[in-house]
Design a protein that fits this description.
The chain is mainly alpha-helical and 326 residues long. It has 3 domains: 74 residues, Serine Threonine Protein Phosphatase 5, Tetratricopeptide repeat; 37 residues, no CATH class; 124 residues, Tetratricopeptide repeat domain (Serine Threonine Protein Phosphatase 5, Tetratricopeptide repeat), CATH 1.25.40.10. The protein is built from 15 helices and 3 strands.
Length: 326
Amino acid sequence: EEKSGKAKYTTETRQLMGAMTSDLVNSAVEDNKNKRFKDAAEKLYMSYNMSPRDTVYLYFAASSAVNGVDYETALKYYNELKDLDYDGSVMEFKATNVATGEVEAMEKVQRDLMVKSGEYKDPVDERTPSRRGEIVKNVALIYTQLGQDDKAIAAFTEARADSPDDVNLILNEANLYYRLGDKDKFKALMTEAASVEPDNPDLHYNIGVINMEQENFEDARASYRKALEINPGYVNAALNLSTTYVNEGNGLIDDMNNLGNSKADIAKYDELKIRKDELFKEGVGVLENALKTNPDNQSILTQLKNIYGALGDTENFMRLKKILGE
């Protein structure tokens, strides 16, 4: 009698706890829909504590905390998941709907019955990707947000080991190094990202920006040209490509101004001026070409006007002033 009563009590308790957990989770779902992320995180974490086997509640509690910009709490939950060696992958049971041709996921028993009925075909059992990499990545991003740079770097190292070709992960790590002032590391990571996504013009553009800042003009030009090859209408890449020639030419002006009045210096001055004008004309060529795809772009027209002015080309300078309505 006593054993039977205890078993009954245990069963009823489990049912009650299960119902409470279900209600909490449903309430958390509503909180998330209504952007009450802090409440959702607390309820999901409570649900996890009531049913520790359901580690997915802890995972979603962390996600809600991130959405609510409560990074300290999110970090606590993510670290708990790491300590649990949480994987998060599940088996999905799929089949193709004969009528629509769409692949659908459902419970295994239902899937098997639908295949037997002939309404579905080609049953497939697939395991979803592990969430470990995502968790480590989020930990790294949170440390970055909290300004804990050393911990962020360590977390990025761990995350990259798990997902070496995750471009967003590479970019976030690159941005951390940029903020820390390590532009060489930033450039190396951007180059790595570009090797993973070679057809992404923004990656090549950003590599060009860093090279231009470091006055590596040839490397910068190669990157800007690659960006323009992928996207011929990329205005900023065209502007910066032109600017590399202007900046290099301006560097020669400094050299010219430092020369004296000797015969050798005068000859050197004339030589540098010819080279400077050649560079400025290269910059003009880039922008005139860019106007073919962006004929009314004010930034291109203005920069082109200024270079013509620096070259002393009054005719083209006035032509562009007129186009600009100046």
